[in-house]
Amino acid sequence: MLHITMIGCGAIGVGVLELLENDPQLCVDYVIASEGSEALVRQRLASFKQPPQVLTALPADARPDLLVECAGHRAIEEHVLPALERGIACLIVSVGALSEVGLVERLEAAAERGKTRIELLPGAIGGIDALSAAKVGGLDAVNYTGRKPARAWKNTPGEQACDLDTIEQATVIFQGSAREAARLYPKNANVAATLSLAGLGLDRTHVTLIADPHSDENVHHFEARGAFGRFELSLRGKPLLANPKTSALTVYSVVRALGNHAHAISI
Ligand SMILES: NC(=O)C1=CN([C@@H]2O[C@H](COP(=O)(O)OP(=O)(O)OC[C@H]3O[C@@H](n4cnc5c(N)ncnc54)[C@H](O)[C@@H]3O)[C@@H](O)[C@H]2O)C=CC1
Ligand SMILES: O=C([O-])CC(=O)C(=O)O
Predict the structure, then answer these.
(1) What ipTM goes with this model?
(2) Which domains are delineated in the chain?
(3) Does residue 189 have a pLDDT over 90?
(4) What is the E.C. number (predicted)?
């Protein structure tokens, strides 16, 4: 059985715990919550048969097989870097955090010192295997378009680009590099950052973001061209009820990745 520590227990975390509850090969022993939110998280987990222990930091003597981050950018600094130094393998869902200058190098150095590994999860997007394989032969262009319901862009610079409450047509709220998208839209830039890391990098991946008042899906579309040929992928993700910014596929991506570590065959 694999012993897991989960960082963050919001929309993704609860979804993952629900799906793992009856898996005999995976056990989440600890959930690490942010300071002050422990009681709320315990309440969220009250209906579980064997709820994980809720703490604000991993105990010094804990030695999980895997640590999975489902929390947000700050948690990488707070929990993932120290865990890597301790030799704990980490799975990261907040891939957008890696667009911060120098963070990739710090994660690599911490994993090397701890003689362990970091796995960046595909989350809300697919085709990352094909894109990173295509990169081996050389890529010429990667263009990504993220289209979400207007309400998903609340509290982002999208509010300055248009009136999200009254737009009647799908409206482009951003066009530029993945680096700029990550800076301006940190909570919506995970897919752009993942495509950049697998493909052409933050400066050469072109991003378009759209607020769509008629959509209730998170639509991720990208096109890649290179020596391998060309492919495009369009993924119409259903948002989670608990957080409309997050696609349900992200939960399944975490469960798949954990299962691949525990089961005899990984796919
Ligand atoms: N790779 C991908 O495709 C996607 C990645 N994400 C990332 O996953 C993260 C979580 O998403 P949701 O569960 O929908 O968000 P959420 O807001 O529902 O839940 C996040 C939870 O993490 C907790 N948290 C925040 N900082 C923490 C810290 N430093 N230590 C411990 N707990 C902390 C919060 O209190 C909250 O309970 C997002 O911030 C986003 O960056 C989200 C969607 C797709
Ligand atoms: O669709 C999602 O779940 C999240 C998303 O767009 C992103 O962070 O890039």
Answers:
(1) 0.98
(2) 2-120 (3.40.50.720), 128-244 (3.30.360.10)
(3) no
(4) 1.4.1.21
